[in-house]
Fold:
Amino acid sequence: MKIILGSASPRRRKLLSDWGYAFDVLNPNVDERAIRTEVSHELPLVLAKAKNKALMPMAKNAILITSDSVVIHNGQLREKPKDTEELRHFLSTYWEAPAEVITAVVVSNTMNGKTLEGVESAKVYFHKFPDKLIEELISHGNLMGVSGGFIAEMPAMKKYIVYMEGGMDTIMGLPKELTKRLIQEVQQ
Structure:
């Protein structure tokens, strides 16, 4: 069956491609900030479901994969930074506590109507980023479009990782084993 990745994320596209999948991409165009939950840990699944629902009419005869991630740091929700000042705050405080990345995946088979979902989390412990690096990262620009304002696999940031609990794929926004299992199960 045709696979459709319902995501604008280049990181998710790279992961799915690296795993050997051929797929099309659709952008769900969902206003993520308009969708809220009482419990921050539940937000990624609510967002992934909203993306799935938005794309379902366009995903004919396909396996549709949607996903979303948020970062929880010191009990606070960190989504995509609103501006460079918020990004600067995020980057300057990550050494204080682990950044917990929560990623949800929703997979639908549009032929049989089966939809399954799952959530994984991972934690990243960082050393303190030097002020000069923070300014370089801000000027890089790519961090504004990612939850929590960090790309852990980016070489400049990766060398400041002290420890990780969980997989880099979860941190990048698409847990490999969970995604593969959901793809298999919706086809049964």
The beta strands are 2-6, 24-26, 62-73, 76-78, 99-109, 115-126, 161-165. The two ends are 12 Å apart (CA to CA). The mean pLDDT is 95. Helices lie at 10-18, 43-55, 84-93, 131-140, 155-158, 168-172, 176-186.
